[in-house]
Specification:
- The chain is of the alpha+beta class.
- A five-stranded antiparallel sheet has the order 2-1-5-4-3, with helices on both faces.
- It is globular, with a radius of gyration of 13 Å.
- It comes from Marine Group I thaumarchaeote.
- This is Roadblock/LC7 domain-containing protein.
Length: 121
């Protein structure tokens, strides 16, 4: 899968999407893009910490997948941004941030649609 193209397409979905990235199971941010002209709130080290926390949550949710099924998405709302995580496959997690008070459910639906389209290629 072309993760650069996926991140680019996600940013093009809506100008309210601030950031899109792909993280592997080792917690490494293997691809990411930021919306141009938008102030980023996290330093590179803080971004790594945020990615680590997202991966930790994803790994924790997998411990209950035998009972609840697999995680389909995750949302964390902060005052300044909303963070979204959507599994791409068993090895990669899509992480995105959007402006606060945006309809994250609609954003998740759009992001999942792009992921499904990209995985079919």
């Amino acid at each position: 899968m072309d993760f650069d193209k996926l991140c680019k397409n996600i940013l093009e979905l809506d100008s309210k999407i601030r950031f899109a990235g792909v993280v592997n199971t080792k917690g490494v941010l293997i691809n990411n893009l930021e919306q141009k002209g938008i102030k980023q709130y996290l330093s590179p080290d803080e971004l790594k910490m945020s990615i680590h926390y997202s991966m930790w949550e994803w790994e924790k949710s997998q411990n209950l997948s035998h009972e609840l099924g697999f995680e389909r998405s995750s949302v964390l709302e902060y005052d300044k941004v909303t963070l979204i995580s959507v599994p791409i496959d068993n090895s990669n997690l899509l992480v995105a941030s959007i402006e606060p008070n945006e309809d994250f459910f609609k954003m998740i639906i759009k992001i999942k649609s792009l992921i499904q389209t990209a995985t079919k290629k």
